[in-house]
Amino acid sequence: MTTPNSTIRSVVLGIGSYLPEKIVTNDDLAKIVDTSDEWIRERSGIHQRHIAADGELTSDLALHAAKRALADAGIDAQEIDLIVLATSTPDNTFPATATKVQAALGINHGAAFDVQAVCSGFVFAMTTADALIKCGQAQKALVIGAETFSRILDWKDRATCVLFGDGAGAVVLGAEQGQGTNDDRGILASKLRSDGRHYDKLFVDGGVSSTQTVGYLRMQGPEVFKHAVKNISSVVLETLEIADMPISQVNWFVPHQANKRILDGAAKKLKLTPEQVVVTVDKHGNTSAASVPLALDVAVKDGRIKKDDVVLLEAMGGGFTWGAVLLRW
Ligand code: ACO
After folding, report:
1. How many CB atoms are located within 10 Å of the residue 247 CB?
2. Which residues are catalytic?
């Protein structure tokens, strides 16, 4: 439900992203595991992915993306009073990678912390930043999704190592007075979900408390697939219902880039046209929390997403976690 009262909206002021230089093609992977370009393209839609260089950390990727988002917004880093960084591949177990980015930007006021919701991380981080902006804790926030998933892949497991990549994306959110209607720019509604009964369907088999090792990503791919389309469609519809907006008013669908077949399935179920769906999984692979802001940046920079367009973000990931954010650009 929208309210007739004037209200604070979290408006996107700028966006930026960063991909590591090194590109690894499907043919490159076929040299190290028993796979083929044809299998990977057919089952996932992925053609290539970017992989971080030795010594290039999640915070480095995040910092590049953050600087580009700040430049795009045309604001100085000192105006930022909140950094929420979504990652499952932090530089260290603690402190939060967000604090490293904060220091690198020369900011020592406000707050910076990480959010961990795997592939749904950016949607969770946007919703968290929006809530903190709405309650007056922050005026301008950097929301970042950054991952070096290459560090938690078992490069001997063909069922998982071909699907993921590294990268980062960031937006600057600013508090603006709205009217409380769907004509406002900024975040109009969001919905977060999780169901821990599916913990072991997509997880890392190591951890601080359990094994004192980092571990490798393990996934029951077909099981994840089965839940993905259903969960994504239902959370998108719930989010639209919160905003009281018909799906016909949505201009752009920017889904988490896990698998082209999941994107197509969700779009079809939601009756969105293929032209409305932003797809980057072919070039980036699944970059987990970075995938939504990376895809958003591509569609903004190539001129598809314009000011005042209605944009729907969604993601699903390990946990399971899933969620959607509806915003007017
Ligand atoms: N190359 C060649 N063959 C392979 C490869 C590979 N890289 N990986 C698996 N295979 C084989 C399997 O061993 C199996 O062989 P078998 O029939 O002889 O046993 C066969 O291919 C089929 O395997 P499936 O796992 O059933 O293949 P499926 O069509 O389900 O595709 C995939 C697998 C791509 C992982 C799919 O299930 C998927 O995308 N699931 C969603 C997972 C996902 O996207 N997770 C990301 C995070 S969660 C999220 O964001 C939604």
Report:
1. 15
2. 119, 256, 286
Q: Tens digits of per-residue pLDDT, 166-193?
A: 999 999 999 999 999 999 999 999 999 9
Q: Which residues line ligand 1 (CB under 6 A)?
A: 35, 39-40, 43-44, 119, 158-159, 162, 202, 219, 221-222, 224-225, 228, 256, 258-259, 262, 286, 316-317
User: Which residue in 319, 192, 329 sits closest to 254, CA to CA?
Assistant: 329
The rounded Å distance from CA 193 to ligand 1 centre is 25
User: Under CATH, which number does the domain 7-178 receive?
Assistant: 3.40.47.10
What pLDDT score was predicted for residue 6? 57
Q: One fold for both 7-178 and 186-328? A: yes
CATH superfamily of 186-328: Thiolase/Chalcone synthase (3.40.47.10)
Of 238, 274, 231, give the one whose Cα is nearest residue 253.
274
The CA distance from 322 to 227, in Å, is 10
Where along the chain do its domains lie? Answer: 7-178, 186-328
